[in-house]
Amino acid sequence: MATGKKAKNMGKTAKGKAKEVTGKAVGNERLEAKGRAEQVAGDAKQAAQKARDALKH
Q1: Are the C-beta atoms of 48 and 26 separated by less than 8 Å?
Q2: How far is CA 23 from the centre of its chain?
Q3: Is the dihedral angle over the CA atoms 25, 28, 31, 36 positive or is it negative?
Q4: Mind listing the pLDDT tens digit for each residue in 1-50?
Q5: DSSP-derived secondary structure letter, 39
Q6: Rg of the chain's alpha carbons, rounded to an integer?
Q7: pTM for this predicted structure
Q8: Three-state SS annotation for the chain
């Protein structure tokens, strides 16, 4: 996996986790849901990148 893309996707996942935790702490369901959505998006992009890398080799 390209290092830059991997870091970007991991950052998106971490940012989503932070939003989810913050949303839970303050009782903001919208922020919590947005955080979960970002985590899913980051994980999906990581999986897609891994699949592309597997096809290259």
Answers
A1: no
A2: 16
A3: positive
A4: 567 888 888 889 999 999 999 999 999 999 999 999 999 999 999 999 88
A5: H
A6: 13
A7: 0.80
A8: CCHHHHHHHHHHHHHHHHHHHHHHHHCCHHHHHHHHHHHHHHHHHHHHHHHHHHHHC
Both structure tokens of 2 = 């390209």
Tell the residue number behind the tokens 């990581």, with chain if given. Answer: 46
Question: What is the Cα–Cα distance from 6 to 13, expressed in whole angstroms?
Answer: 11
Q: Residue 54: which residues within 8 A CB-CB, separation 6 or more?
A: none
Q: Rounded to whole angstroms, how far apart are CA atoms 1 and 7?
A: 10
Task: Report whether 19 contacts 31 (CB < 8 A).
Answer: yes
Find where tokens 């950052």 sit.
11
